[in-house]
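Bench notes, bay 3.
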Amino acid sequence: MLTDVQLRALKPAKKIYKVADQWGLYAAVTPSGGVSFPVLLPGEGSPGNPGYRPVRSITFRTKATQARRTRIRNGYSLPETRLRRDQAYGAIQRGESLSRAKVEKRVDATETLTFGKWAEKYFMETAPADSTRAMRKLL
């Protein structure tokens, strides 16, 4: 199992290299010194069904290291990554699709009610006031 001390001791090399942690999680060190945490997860679905994937990989990213020490900023630390890995395993065990959830979240964000959509909806559903109707009759 990878510890924080071992994680801090990882030095960049000319090529990306990986150090195993546990349960499909490992640390990948880039030539620039950045660290990401790829995870191998069991596949989704069952054999013979469309969309079946025997093994899949997701990556929890971190920001670049600072001063040759692995200080993780705006990313995930090792314990947080292990927790997220466990959540992903649980989602797969419940039969949820990680990619489908990601797409649905993106679609929901694009379908939010913007001011233009709100104004259009308001004017379509709201009847004009009596003074507005009277003014339109004059035109």
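Next record in the batch:
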Amino acid sequence: MSQETYELKAEARERVGKGSARELRRNGLIPAVIYGDKQAPISIALSTNEVTKRIHAGSFMTTVATIDVGGEKYKVLPKDYQLDPVRDFTMHVDFLRVSGNTQVTVEIPVHFINEEKSQVKIGGVLNIVRHTIEVHCPADAIPEFFDIDLSGKKIGDSIHISEVVLPKGVTTVIDRDFTIATIVAPAAGVEEEAPAEGEGEAEA
């Protein structure tokens, strides 16, 4: 499961538009919007420092949060955020209202384990085709990551999504057995392990 939820304080925005957004940013705030769940969208402003801290902490897009707007609390999942292309600071965030039965689409990172138990150990190259897997799942049961076990994998092998055990209620967006990674030989080939002492003497 994804990391524990957190809460952010926000204030409602009466004015919207580019001029209002610029003024908010000058005052250390980020314009944002809460939408979805068949309700009217709410324009809000959040602390730039708090949001940036959450983004840099990781799992921002897969962790359900609570936003307190003047005492009224909304359970949300970040769906998008915009960065300034030059100065790399957060300019805007979109949040989706969620509840226990809300289904969301999120990208879950993959972690590769047990490389030392595969032919990657003797020079094989792990060629990662997908660093994340896009899934549908309940908003209150978002996986934090998927472990991909490389034990016993040899050069020439491929790892497909069918080898990953998905939690209950989690399904992939792509409806086919797609490749996550392959193990390939390096350009110069893989050096064979040196024979044990004494091997080959009979031939000599």
